[in-house]
Amino acid sequence: MNRRAMFKPLVQSLALALAALLCACGGSTTEPPPLAGARIGGPFTLVDDDGRAVRWSDFAGQYRIVYFGYTYCPDVCPLDMQATMRGLADYAKQHPALAKQIKAVFISIDPQRDTPKVVGQFAAAISPNLIGLTGSPEQVATAAKAFGTYYARGPATPGGGYLMDHSRTTYLMGRNGEPIAMLPADQGPQAVAAELTKWVR
Predict the structure, then answer these.
(1) CATH of the domain at 100
(2) N or C of the chain: less Cβ packing under 10 Å?
(3) What is the Cα–Cα distance from 76 to 33, expressed in whole angstroms?
């Protein structure tokens, strides 16, 4: 039996496994982003909590986290945003310099009720690093169309209000506004932080 011949493949396998582990720990990957080439994102003009116009181009050179929802949402919107912002905060502990280059944006799909002040209060309650945006129905429709986001007003509720039916996607966009990946907010902050580590460089 040639022990040296048997030992060589074992060493090679261990070396490959170690290299893969080091790459995973470093957060680098050679695989293309999941949303590479997708037609997601585009120009829009909305309004922040101070009533100032905010354009998609204002975020040029920065990574962007984009979520469409509404402040009166009773469940998924606040939960998704809380998980996303906690994940971003966890990511910032390990990568403070890169985290400063990420802008998180919440866009209302309920402009009738979500005034700039209301959206600003909602965003501030979740995180001081979350930007809340709203606008006219036409402005919101333009932004939602650019991101392929569905939304519609639901039937009236017993209290006289209403719910909004909408897509539930948290987008990670690149420095040039290109789509990169969908952040798994529904899986919690750790999953969000892991995805940011994978794609933000």
Answers:
(1) 3.40.30.10
(2) N
(3) 26
Distance CA 140, CA 67 (A): 13
Query: How far is it, in rounded angstroms, from Cα 126 to Cα 130?
Result: 7
Closest C-alpha among 84, 118, 75, 73 to residue 188: 84
Provide the domain limits for residue 95: 36-199
Which residues have C-beta within 8 Å of that of residue 79, sequence separation ≥ 6? 185
Tell me phi and psi for residue 25, to 5 degrees. Answer: -65, -35
State how far the alpha carbon of 179 is from the alpha carbons of 1, 135, 137, in Å: 55, 23, 24
Tell me the residue ranges of DSSP E strands in the chain.
45-47, 53-55, 63-69, 102-108, 130-133, 151-156, 162-166, 170-173, 179-182
Its pTM stands at: 0.84
Tokens 């920065």, residue located = 62
Range in 39-53, 76-90, 107-121, 146-160 with the lowest mean pLDDT:
146-160
In DSSP terms, 53 is beta-bridged to 47
Q: Quick check: is 21 in a domain?
A: no
Tokens representing 90 are: 């966890």
